[in-house]
Design goal:
The chain is α/β, with parallel strands linked by helices. It has three domains: about 5-50, no CATH class; about 55-120 and about 295-440, Rossmann fold (3-Layer(aba) Sandwich), CATH 3.40.50.740; about 120-290, Dimethylsulfoxide Reductase, domain 2 (3-Layer(aba) Sandwich). The protein is about 35% helix and about 20% strand. It is built from 17 helices and 19 strands. The strands form four sheets. The protein has a nine-stranded mixed beta sheet with strand order 5-4-17-16-15-6-7-13-14. Bound molecules: iron/sulfur cluster (SF4).
Length: about 450
C-alpha cells in the first residue's frame, strides 16, 4: 500500500480507559477509514481501535427524521431554552474543550450539570473535599513506589497497562528492578484476574472496608485493636499488623483504589478513611492515594467542571449560581424523581445502565444525544447527533487519571463534527434565543 493509503501515527493516545496511554503507534488504512494495527495497546485498547469505524449515519436525527447538523443544533437549542429543568449529563468520553462548552450552556440555561463521576468515583470527590488528598502522578509511582496497594479494583481486566506501564512491573529510577523491587498488595472481596499479581491478598468480607481501614489507621497510630476485628472483616489482627509494618517502613507507598471501595456500603466514608490513612502514614514515610478512573476523560470532566463551577459533578445553576448537591442534583436522582423536563446527554449511554425509574423518565422527556455510534439512549432521543470520536478523529485535551493533561493526536479525520463543534453551535444559538442573556431565574422552578 502507498503512503496515500496508509498512515502511521506515532505517540497517539488511547482514550478507552483512564490510563490514557499516549505511546500508541497506529497504522491507519485511509481508504477504509480503519486502524489496522495498534502497537503498544493492551487487549482493551486493541479492541477499541479495531472496532472504530466511520458508520454511515445521518449527521442528525430529529424525531427519527434525517437532518443536518445545523437543523439539529436549532432543534436542540429550542428544547433547552424552553425547558424549565434541563439537565446535561455524560462528558467523560469527550475532550476538555467540549466539556468547557457544556458547562457554559448549563450556566446559560439555568440547568443541571452532572458527569458519569456521579455513578463511579463521586464518593471520592466528596472525600477529597472533606479529607484532602496526598497525591502523585503515575510517573512518580512508576519511578518511586516500592509498596503498591490496590483496593477494591481489578486493574488486570479494567486497566491492563496500569500494571506494566506504571505500578507493578514497570522499572523506575528508584525501583530499577521493577517487580522485584516492589511489594504488591491487593484488597478485595473476592479473587479476580488481578489477584495472582499480588504478593499479599487480603480478602475482606463484603461491606467491611471501612472497618479494615479504620483498624489500619488505629494500628498506624499505635492504638490497640481487638482481635475480634477478624470476625467482622475476615482479616486477622496479625495480617493487619504485618501490613502496617510494611506501610510504615516502605520508601514510597501508593494506595490505588477503585469502585469496589467507593460504590460499596460507606461510599465517601470509605474513600475518606483511605485518604486519611495515607495522610496518617506521611508521619512515617511518603504515602500517596489516588482513585483508579474508568472512562478516558472522566478526570478531565472533574477538572473542567471544578474549575468552572467550584464543584466536580452534580451541579445545579437554577438559582443563577452553581450549587453542589450529590444525591439531589446527580442525574440518577434527578431523573428518578421525575424532575427534569429535557436532557442533553453527551458521549454517554445512561439508558443502558441507569436504574429503571430514571430510564422511564428519560423516555418521557425530550432527549438530545451526541455520540459517534447508535446507543440505547440515542435511540430514544428527540435529537440525535452523530459525532466524530475523540482521540481517534478529534483533537483536544484529556486528563489522565492522575490529573496529567495529555494532548490527543488523532489518527484520521471523520466527516462528522466533534462534540465541541456541535456544543459551540448550540451555545451560540441558545445565547441568541435568550437575547444575549442568561436564562432568567424562575423561582417557581421544580428544583427550588
Ligand atoms: S490501559 Fe487503557 S488506555 Fe492503555 S491501552 Fe489499555 S485500554 Fe488503552
Amino acid at each position: 500500500m502507498s503512503e496515500d493509503t496508509v498512515r502511521v501515527v506515532s505517540d497517539a493516545t488511547c482514550t478507552f480507559c483512564g490510563c490514557v496511554c499516549d505511546d500508541m503507534v497506529l497504522t491507519v488504512d485511509l481508504q477504509q477509514h480503519k486502524i489496522t494495527k495498534s502497537q503498544n495497546a493492551c487487549v482493551l485498547g486493541k479492541a477499541w481501535f479495531k472496532e472504530h469505524s466511520i458508520e454511515e449515519r445521518p449527521f442528525a436525527l430529529i424525531g427519527g427524521r434525517e437532518a443536518s447538523t445545523e437543523e439539529g443544533i436549532e432543534a436542540a437549542a429550542q428544547i433547552l431554552v424552553n425547558a424549565r429543568f434541563p439537565i446535561i449529563y455524560g462528558l467523560s468520553d469527550t475532550t476538555c474543550e467540549a466539556q468547557r462548552v457544556a458547562v457554559a450552556i448549563a450556566d446559560m440555561i439555568g440547568g443541571n450539570l452532572d458527569t458519569t463521576t456521579s455513578v463511579c468515583h463521586g464518593p471520592s470527590g466528596i472525600a477529597f473535599q472533606g479529607v484532602g488528598e496526598s497525591t502523585a502522578t503515575l510517573g512518580e509511582i512508576k519511578n518511586r513506589a516500592d509498596l503498591v496497594i490496590f483496593w477494591g479494583g481489578n486493574p488486570a481486566e479494567a486497566h491492563p497497562r496500569l500494571f506494566t506501564r506504571y505500578a507493578v512491573t514497570a522499572k523506575g529510577m528508584h525501583v530499577p528492578q521493577g517487580r522485584k523491587d516492589r511489594t504488591v498488595v491487593l484488597v478485595d472481596v473476592r479473587r479476580t484476574a488481578s489477584t495472582p499479581v499480588a504478593d499479599i491478598f487480603l480478602q475482606v468480607k463484603p461491606r467491611s472496608d471501612f472497618e479494615v481501614l479504620w483498624a489500619l489507621r488505629a494500628l498506624v497510630k499505635g492504638k490497640r485493636v481487638d482481635p475480634s476485628i477478624e470476625q467482622r472483616t475476615g482479616i486477622s489482627l496479625a495480617v493487619l499488623e504485618d501490613l502496617v509494618a510494611r506501610m510504615k517502613s516502605c520508601q514510597f507507598g501508593a494506595l490505588l483504589f477503585g469502585m469496589g471501595l467507593t460504590m460499596n456500603r460507606g461510599r465517601h466514608f470509605n474513600a475518606g478513611a483511605l485518604l486519611a490513612l495515607a495522610t496518617d502514614l506521611n508521619e512515617f514515610t511518603h504515602f500517596v492515594a489516588a482513585p483508579v478512573r474508568g472512562h478516558g476523560n472522566v478526570t478531565g470532566a472533574d477538572n473542567v467542571v471544578s474549575w468552572q463551577t467550584g464543584y466536580p459533578f452534580g451541579v445545579n445553576f437554577s438559582r443563577g449560581f452553581p450549587r453542589f448537591g450529590p444525591g439531589e442534583f446527580t442525574t440518577v436522582d434527578v431523573l428518578s424523581r421525575g424532575d427534569a423536563d429535557a436532557a442533553m446527554i453527551i458521549a454517554s449511554d445512561p439508558a443502558s445502565n441507569f436504574p429503571q425509574p430514571a430510564i422511564e423518565h428519560l423516555k418521557r422527556i425530550p432527549v438530545i444525544t451526541l455520540d459517534p455510534k447508535t446507543t440505547i439512549t440515542s435511540q430514544l432521543a428527540q435529537v440525535a447527533f452523530t459525532t466524530s470520536t475523540y482521540g481517534i478523529n478529534t483533537p483536544g485535551t484529556v486528563y489522565r487519571m492522575d490529573n496529567v493533561p495529555i494532548t490527543l493526536r488523532p489518527a484520521f479525520e471523520s466527516p462528522y463534527p466533534g462534540d465541541e463543534q456541535i456544543l459551540t453551535g448550540i451555545r451560540t444559538r441558545v445565547h441568541e434565543l435568550l437575547g444575549g442573556n442568561r436564562l432568567p431565574v424562575d423561582t417557581s422552578a421544580a428544583s427550588l
